[in-house]
Recover the amino acids of this structure.
């Protein structure tokens, strides 16, 4: 008895099992199709076998995992920078000559913010309580304009002025299109502010300053996470600075009392 294992399959699905003969009259070689041309359940519409699909899926998953790993590494680096920044701020406050350390602490705040967030430049403005203006006291970064130090921002003007009035941070990734932007300084110093993060420096419920970090490196955009990080740094540093200022004011008061 011949085994039923035909090399080809007829276009008419009815076959006589066990003989390999075709049941309908006229069925013959001209009506047969090669078996390799059939679309079996384990091949897709593009002719890819299950093995090929699985291999492609595996490669896509591997690439996704690599991308996620790069993101995690970047976030871990930012967190490490944040922890190191906090440690330096605490060290600055704990130094014996506390009266001379206020500016050092502020410089640490700005430097830490620029590095941890991956910005190109940054500035620190402090309020003039008499006029309500914000005064540039520190500028740092790749495109530092030291002549900016001492310049004043009119009360309520600019993104920094908005942050000072509202006491909350903001993210702006298209600065020229923002209504709060104060372009006069960019024009005067031949500088282009493309993106910006700004957060208030608060301590003891007082506004001690505004920290700005400008232009994310490699043309990237600032994220919500970047603003959260800057806000945390400013809040922590603000309380340390308030403690330092309070101690300095107390020391000066005691000296005046002793001399009276």
């Amino acid at each position: 008895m011949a085994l039923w294992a035909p090399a080809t399959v007829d276009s008419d699905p009815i076959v006589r099992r066990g003989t390999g003969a075709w049941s309908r009259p006229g069925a013959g070689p001209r009506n047969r199709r090669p078996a390799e041309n059939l679309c079996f359940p384990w091949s897709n519409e593009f002719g890819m076998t299950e093995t090929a699909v699985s291999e492609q899926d595996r490669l896509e998953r591997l690439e996704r995992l690599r991308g996620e790993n790069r993101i995690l590494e970047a976030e871990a680096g930012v967190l490490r920078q944040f922890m190191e920044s906090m440690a330096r701020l605490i060290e600055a406050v704990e130094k014996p000559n506390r009266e001379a350390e206020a500016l050092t602490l502020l410089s640490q705040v700005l430097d830490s913010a620029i590095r941890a967030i991956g910005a190109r430049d940054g500035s620190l403005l402090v309020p003039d309580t008499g006029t309500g203006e914000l005064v540039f006291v520190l500028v740092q970064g790749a495109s530092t304009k030291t002549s900016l130090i001492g310049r004043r921002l009119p009360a309520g003007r600019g993104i920094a002025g908005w942050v000072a009035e509202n006491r909350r941070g903001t993210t702006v990734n298209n600065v020229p299109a923002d209504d709060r932007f104060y372009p006069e300084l960019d024009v005067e110093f031949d500088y282009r502010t493309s993106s910006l993060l700004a957060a208030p420096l608060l301590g003891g419920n007082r506004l001690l300053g505004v920290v700005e970090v400008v232009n994310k490196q490699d043309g990237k955009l600032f994220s919500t996470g970047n603003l959260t990080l800057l806000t945390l740094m400013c809040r922590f540093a603000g309380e340390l600075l308030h403690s330092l200022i309070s101690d300095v004011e107390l020391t000066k008061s005691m000296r005046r009392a002793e001399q009276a």
Remarks:
- The chain is about 45% helix and 20% strand.
- Confidence is low (pLDDT under 50) at residues 5-23.
